[in-house]
Write a structure and sequence with these properties.
- The chain has two domains: 130 residues, Immunoglobulin-like, CATH 2.60.40; 157 residues, no CATH class.
- 11% of the residues lie in helices and 36% in strands.
- The protein is mainly beta and 356 residues long.
- A hairpin with a 5-residue loop joins β13 and β14.
- The strands form six sheets. A five-stranded antiparallel β-sheet has the order 6-4-3-7-8, with no helix packed on it.
- It is built from five helices and 20 strands.
């Protein structure tokens, strides 16, 4: 029956000091299972370890064997390096030259009929062994003169001067530590000139962003609704197409709607033809733009309430310029924040937006 050996962990040492006394061994723990995945419990097994140089089939620089017993859980514990040596010596391995690979073989009956369990690169070199066998480095430079036991016990800054107190009670004034203020740095990419809720550009700012060049852009909502009873388009049963189905580009959608054959009136046309507050680039917002407006409606409505003649966003349905793939279009519900689609002949609220 084919046997299996499950490796739990293989530990390498950490270098504690160049000349520290280092145990010549690497802890190795494994669980031995049979071909059906069952553990081989309370049984004498034979293990053979080979350290190979450079590649998996490289020269065996060290080999040893162990005869050990599994626990009731099939667990074995050995220390590679203190077994019965067959080839070379563990202390003679030059860990600092070439990669090292470890080959594990096993005879579950405790004999010498070994089964090769595989060869694995030792990704972490036993550095303590490498350090212990290394050549001492050159002596470092001499340290600075000591202070005869005097040390710093406290420090403080008074009137821009740094004072330090020594353990002998002496107080030293090191001089001024505060330099003249440097020039103001450039504006960071996260800062904006405008803000959400700002009355600007004929309406109220409800979204801001910067492009890859760091140029600031934003979206502005109009101060009043253009209609409370407007159908999406008079061309009810026909689909405009992908040119009017963008979730984010309301201006392109609006132009596609009014360019449809047979078009005479629509929510998009109301917006494109508007010159509210002296602006002529209004359009019907896309569904994503209406979502952004909903998310910032507290700031927007607060600002609209302070503008004479302006009206707040109402708790009702607003048309978006985003057409559904079928002969319907998306609207945004300002009652509960949901989005859905409706037949184009339904009459809903319309509020224009513009971009800068």
């Amino acid at each position: 029956m084919k046997q299996k050996l499950t490796l739990l962990f293989l530990l390498s040492f950490v270098c504690k000091g160049l000349f520290a006394q280092v145990p010549q061994g690497i802890p190795y723990q494994s669980i031995i299972r049979d071909g059906y995945g069952n553990v081989v419990a309370n049984q004498t097994v034979k293990l053979r370890f080979s350290i190979r140089d450079s590649i998996t089939s490289g020269t065996v620089v060290y080999q040893e064997t162990f005869q050990t017993n599994t626990s009731s859980l099939g667990l074995t514990n050995v220390n590679i390096g203190i077994g019965t040596a067959v080839v070379g010596t563990f202390s003679g391995i030059n860990w600092g030259v070439n990669s090292k690979f470890i080959q594990v073989e096993m005879d579950p009956t405790g004999g010498t009929n070994y089964t090769d369990m595989g060869t694995t690169q030792m990704m972490s070199v036993p550095y303590a062994l490498f350090c212990a066998n290394g050549t001492p480095g050159p002596q470092g430079p001499a340290g600075v003169n000591g202070t005869n036991g005097v040390s710093v016990t406290n420090s403080s800054i008074v009137n821009d001067s740094l004072y330090i107190t020594l353990s002998n009670g002496q107080i030293l004034n090191t001089g001024y530590v505060k330099g003249a203020p440097g020039p103001q740095g450039p504006m960071g990419t996260g800062s904006f000139t405008h803000y959400i809720g700002e009355v600007f550009g004929g309406g109220v700012v409800f979204h801001l962003w910067k492009n890859v060049q760091g140029v600031e852009h934003g979206l502005i909502v109009d101060k009043t609704d253009l209609s409370a009873f407007q159908d999406w388009s008079n061309v009810h049963p026909y689909v405009v197409g992908t040119s009017a189905q963008s979730r984010w580009d309301g201006l392109s959608n609006s132009n596609a709607i009014v360019g449809q054959s047979g078009h005479t009136n629509s929510a998009a046309a109301l917006c494109l033809n508007s010159t509210s507050s002296g602006q002529s680039d209004w359009y019907l917002p896309s569904i994503d733009e209406l979502t952004l407006l909903w998310n910032n409606q507290f700031n927007v409505n607060k600002s609209l309430s302070s503008i004479g003649g302006a009206t707040r966003l109402v708790m009702n349905y607003y048309w978006s310029s985003t057409e559904d793939a079928n002969s319907s279009s998306w609207y945004f519900n300002f009652i509960d924040g949901g989005a859905n689609f409706y037949n184009k002949y339904n009459q809903l609220y319309v509020r224009a937006v513009r971009a800068f």
